[in-house]
Structures are given as C-alpha cells and as structure tokens.
Amino acid sequence: MNFYTQILTRNDCYKAGRTIAPQGVMVHSTGANNPSLSRYVPGSEGIGYNTGGNHWDMSGTGACVHAFIGKLADGSVGVVQTLPWDRRGWHCGKGSRGSANDTHISFEICEDGLQDASYFGAVYQTAVELTADLCKQYGLDPQADGVVICHSEGHTRGVASNHADVMHWFPIHGKSMDTFRADVARAMEGEGEMLTYEQWKEYMVRYRKELAAKEATMTALVADAVALGISSDGSRPGDLMTREEGMVMARAAVMAARINEN
Ligand SMILES: [Zn+2]
Question: How far is CA 112 from CA 7, 117, 156, 247, in A?
Fold first, then answer.
C-alpha cells in the first residue's frame, strides 16, 4: 500500500478537536468524477499538487474524512491519511438513530467514471488492505454486525444521511460490501497465520533439522494432524495452510524420509 500522510489541520473538523473510540470503518466514494488525490488535499510531489484551490485543507469545507484512496502523481493508486484515526470525522451526517461520525473511521474512494475495471480493482484492493490494517489496529471484527459498512448501509441502519455510495459503484464490477468484508477478513488472516506453498517450503527447509532432532512418534504426529483437522481427502490443508498445519506436515515429511532411509 502506497501510503502518505497529510493531516488537514486547517479543516474545521480537525480544528473542532473531538475524538472517538473507533468501533468500525465506513467506506465512502466521492460521487464526483475525479480520481486524483490532489483534488482533495494540498498535495506534494508524490501525491501531486492541488491547482484548483479547492482542496479540503481549509475552513468552510464542511466535511472531512480520515483518508482518501485515489491516484497519486504518477497515476498509481495510493492512500493519503487526512485525519488522526481517532479524530471525530464529518463524513456521514446523521440518520434517525444517530451518527456514525461518533463511532466510525471513514475514508473516501475517489471516483472516476465508474466503468474502468483496472482502476476499480486497484482502489478496491487498497481499500481492503487499509480496512484490514485499521481493524487490526483497533481490534475490530470486519464481519461483525455494523462494523465495516458503507455510507448507504449506514443510512439503512439509521446512522448516516441518505447517500448511495458505494453501492452505485461496487456492483458494476461484481463486488458488494459483503465481498468487501469477506476480503478484509481474508487479508487479516493472510498476514497473520496463513502460509503459501512457497512460504511453507521455505519454512520446512528451515525447521527440518530441528524437527528431525525431535523424536516425533507416529502416534503423536497422527494425533496432532487429527486435532488440526488435516484429512486424507485433501480438503485440509488446501492451497494455504496455517503455521501449525505446516509444522505437522513438515514432521510428516521428515518421518516419511526416515522410513525411506530405513
Ligand atoms: Zn459518503
């Protein structure tokens, strides 16, 4: 994730200085065809510079989010953080039951013309990664009720004004907030405990001697494999395995090698 920080200290929202204890993340998109991050922040060499005098780092903007996702100066997609994560943002107004401004970290995805699949793919993936990072940082479960929601879902839940974002855009590219929440959960697992096959091979080489030194018995190995749900039908582990599964598979490989030697 290409990450920049440009806190909008001249925005009235920042100046208000109120804080929240983050309980979720609200996903927005801008509703205007301008994918450039420099539309919304003063900018820098990497971000690109605002030339319209219309960025949000000024009094009277009337809104502020915690981050924007969009195009950097070189055309690639990145993130600019614009408020401290625990500052109370002005991003969703209020609904019949209150306001997610009091509970949710927010970011805007800069919209383009909504039809470009490659731009959408890049901002969607970046949004997944940013949300996964925030959920980790604040100990949030992205699939728990009401934690990761978009603006339109917030309105349905009575905690936001009546806006369509992001459900006027995501479905054009086969995505929804349900796929988004699932992808965030997967991203959180992926960084934590899942290994790719390549990683597992590296891991196995590294621990092979150590494992061989331990007098693992076939009985203990089988018991551990059963406890982890590793099955002979191939359903577990699949393409990805946990570190614990990797350890058991490595031990099994070491034992198989020994049997061959004998
Ligand atoms: Zn919105």
Answer: 24, 11, 25, 46
